[in-house]
Design goal:
mainly alpha; 68% helix; 0% strand
């Protein structure tokens, strides 16, 4: 098995080649071709094809968004459980104040940095990107969608 490249802020965003470089472009190009065809050869069937391929774009994008939303919910649950075991009591009782974006950013924080980062996130209202940029070490997440 090939070794994984160490994950950092610079390379942690994941692209899915089948989605980003095949499915999405094929659906988008087909939609554009259907518009051109409908303009050149107007008719009910051609315009219905435009509507159909617009719906296919929506289905393609929503299928990706649904999987990302489920992943975010799982991350939120995992991080709340993790923080409940890592944080001292004054901070543990404030975990519910963290936003979903903050919890998502905290998933990359190693255990040793969590308490200080949660304190900063709550006090300074750090964004997900600010939390990730504030890490001195990186806890890789190779399982994300």
């Amino acid at each position: 098995m090939a070794e994984k490249v160490p994950q950092t802020f610079a390379n942690h965003v994941r692209r899915d080649p089948l989605f980003h470089m095949f499915a999405l472009p094929v659906v988008a190009i087909t939609f554009i071709v259907s518009i051109v065809h409908a303009v050149r050869h107007p008719g009910a069937e051609q315009w219905w094809a435009v509507v159909f391929f617009a719906a296919m774009i929506v289905v393609t994008l929503k299928s990706r968004l649904y999987s990302l939303r489920v992943q975010d919910r799982v991350i939120r649950l995992e991080e709340r459980l993790r923080l409940a075991s890592l944080l001292p009591e004054p901070l543990r009782s404030r975990v519910g104040e963290l936003s979903e974006a903050q919890l998502i950013g905290l998933r990359f924080a190693p255990d040793s940095e969590c308490a200080a980062l949660v304190q900063r996130a709550l006090g300074e209202r750090l964004s997900c990107a600010d939390i990730k940029k504030g890490l001195t070490a990186w806890r890789a997440d190779y399982w994300r969608v």
